[in-house]
What does this fold into?
Amino acid sequence: MPVKSLLRLLFSTYLLIPVSLPAHDTLKPSRASAPPLIDGVLDDAAWREAQQITGFKTFFPDFAKDPSERTLACMAYDAENLYFAFYCYDRSPEKIKASMASRDTIQTDDFICINLDSFNDQQSFYAFYVNPLGIQADSRYAGSTEDLSADFVWSSAGRLNHDGYAVEMRIPFKSIRYAGKERVRMALFLERYINRTKEHGSYPEMDPKKGYAFVSQMQPLELRDIRRTTLLEVLPSIVFNQRHEQREGRLQRSESRGEFGVTGKLGLTSKLILDLAWNPDFSQVESDAGQVDANLRSDLYFTEKRPFFLEGSDIFQMAGMSFFMNAVHTRRIVDPLLGFKLSGKLGGRNTLGAIFSLDESADNPLHEGSGAANAAFTIFRYKRALRDDSYVGAFYTGREQGSDYNRLVGLDGQLRLSRSETLSFHGFASSTDNPSMPDEKGTALNAYYSKSTRDLDLTGCFYSIGRGFISESGFLSRSGLTGIESEIGPKFYPKSNFFRKVKPRLWIYVIRDHESRMNEAMGRLGVDFLLPGNTGLTLEAWTGSEIFLDRRFDISQYRLIANSWLSKKLYLYLAYRRGNQIRYVQDPFQGYGNTVAGIARYLPTDKLELEIRFNYADLFAEADGLKVYDYTILRNKLTYQLNKYLFFRGVLEYNDYRKKLLTDFLVSFTYIPGTVIQLGYGSLYEKARWEENGYRPDDRFLEMKRGLFFKASYLWRL
It folds into this structure.
């Protein structure tokens, strides 16, 4: 049988497999006769007319239990907005955790959340979080991954009361994508989180046999006669930078310039959005937190924070799981001169994403002599929704710089096999041509099986990544290997006041290293404990080997992780690991060492937060016990949130290994996402002194760099 015919037969057979899923009645919220005032006081006519939603059940730490506290929800809508109201009763209101925090920083507070599948297609959803003081967070969820970097324009208010707290929300239809018809079908999942008990409750109730498959367990929602409007946003920004650097013993001005940029958003339909940008502001509000960058086998991974790339970012997520983490990692586009992005849906089942950008910061050493100052990035993504939360998709990515290029093409997808089982996969081919890698080609293949229920998590994974596989638009941590992995994790719920939930885990993998033709393997045994309140403990031990430069090394280790909210004012986190390591150098050798990571957060008031982060790593040579290095990073961050719009923040970070001290101060006013005024100042100090014709190590700090930053932008929305 020809291959194409066989594939068609297998695909048709899959579509015929019966999958029984729970049915939910369709919610038909009332149409508001007058819009409610979003002030956290539930005295509006819209709520008196609305149907009340009760019957919340827990899904964490266990499923289908009555929550410890009662929740009442209402919803309404008019031609332009969705409205939600919650009253969250609490018998211990003094224990409610609520902070006057900046946007997107409330995940450790008590909160409510609206999860909205705006297309009712079980492919993705919006999440709108609100804490008891009305502070917002939002995200996009797709492919079992939540992207908290997404930002949308909506309104919220919250108020603490003697018996709990109340929250009101308004979500404009302009801020979400949906199928714009006379009858609009969406799906809804309401959530409440109580921090002190780490309890998640939801409406509708989640099915224990499906685990945390959120997108396929939502309540259908029907709306009528939504006003169709054309979304048009213009976001001009002004940025001024002044920088000083050390030159011949003096701190001298190296740059002083202002830039104007503009970003626009046009709704081609209610489902399809076009973003355009010229010289957009891609500055980082806060420098990335320091990570230990000694003795690395692969690059460090930093998340995307820049607004232009956040619209539709969930579309570019890739199915499957392996060392090839994503085909699109937009942090590879460092400093775009211009760009456009298309994201959204065509028809009921087709999802489209496309990005084109010229990167002015194209100083990749692999492309020296390419004859082009800028690098051009072209990215295309297509997804076709199947039954339930299944889909198939395709990618193309290209980075072109003069005659040099890296191009990648491939397929991915997810298939729901049963109520609790999914199979995700991807297959890619890359082609690269530059002076260091002429006409290089490679492939990456992956299949990932997952089963999740109340009582069991089970995964199995196969991957093969060729030595010549390269992705300059994505993130690849290792190539030249073929491997299989499997993990089993039964879950137990003891009738104990101390052990609330226990999950032992066994994880094994075997990898074939293509270069050496040698095998590496690992077996890991661990157990997770959920203890009283909001306290977690993880213990792990593993034995295994790793191949590096054709040599096998022992990487057996053990690890302990503990975290707890000791009170609503104090949070502690500690992770400790000890064991065998590899010294990743041209002449590698066996070593051993320790790594420690710690976080302490203290909130003396609901407006002030002090965070201290500590990272430590060391390495000793096994042969003679001599210390190769120790690496310490201490980062302190103090934030004062005057109100929901304005905060003051100071960061002090010391890297003992690099002998560098970083200071970073920021004042930020954010009215809505896009309408922002920020003023920042930072310095970099090193233990050095100027002596004759160079800088020499010293015991005192010398200011090596200084920067002043100002940004103003305003979102016009028509």
